[in-house]
DNA-binding transcriptional regulator GlcC (Achromobacter arsenitoxydans SY8), 254 residues
Amino acid sequence: MYAETEEKPRQVADEVAERIERLILDGVLKAGQALPSERRLTEKLGVSRTALREGLKLLRAREIIHTAQGKGSFVAQISKVDAGPLMHLFNSQPRTLYDLLEVRSLLEAESARLAAIRGTEADFIMIRRRYDDMVAAQGAATDTATHAHLDHAFHLAICEASHNPVLVHTLQSLTDLLLGSVFACVNNLYHREPEKRQIDRQHTRLFNAVIARQPEQARKAAADHVDSVRQSLSDIEQEEQRLVRATLRLEGWT
C-alpha cells in the first residue's frame, strides 16, 4: 500500500514534465520565455500544485528550465549554439557565410514545402503577420538590424508551420549564425535598389506559395531566394576585390 502511494505522485510528476517538454518541443513555449504562473499551469494541465512542482523539479534537473530567484521559471536556451571556438571560426572565416547559406537553402526549402502541406490556418495567420511586419518596414526608416530580425522571423514562422520539431530546433540552434547571414544580406543588398526589389519579390513569391498550399512552388521559392542571395553576395565580394586591385594598380606599390 505504501509503495502504491509513493509511485502515484512520481508518475504524475513525470507526466507533467513530459507535457511541458512537448510544449517546448512544439514551440508553444520558446527558449527564454517565462513559464506561466503556477495557478495558470495547474489549470491548463489539470494537475495539483504538488504534482506541478515535482514536474518542474524534474525539468530543472534535466536543465530544460531554470529558475531565477524572485523572477520565476524560464525555458532554457537548450538549442543555443556554443559561442566558443565554433562561433569564432565561423565568424573569422568569410567563406563560412556561403556554407551557411547552402545549409539555409536546404533547410528552408524543405520547411517551406512542409509548411505548404501541413500548415494550419493558425500557422498561416502567424506567417501573414510576420510578412506584413516585413513589408511595413520596407517603406519605413528601419535600421538594418531590425530588418534582419524581421526577415529572420518571417522565415522562422514558415519553418514552425512545417510541424517538424527537429527541423525547427535545428534552425533555432543556428539562430545566431542565421541572423549573421541575414544581416549580411540586408546590410549588403538592401541599399542596392535592384537587389532589394528582387528580395522583396522573392519573399512575396514564397509567402504566396505557402499560403496557397503549393508545396513544390514553396520549396523552389525558398531555395531560389537563398541561392539568389548567395550569388548576389558573391558578386558584390568579387566586385569589391576588383576595385581593391584596380586601386592598388592606380596608386602603385613602391
Remarks:
- The beta strands are 65-68, 72-75.
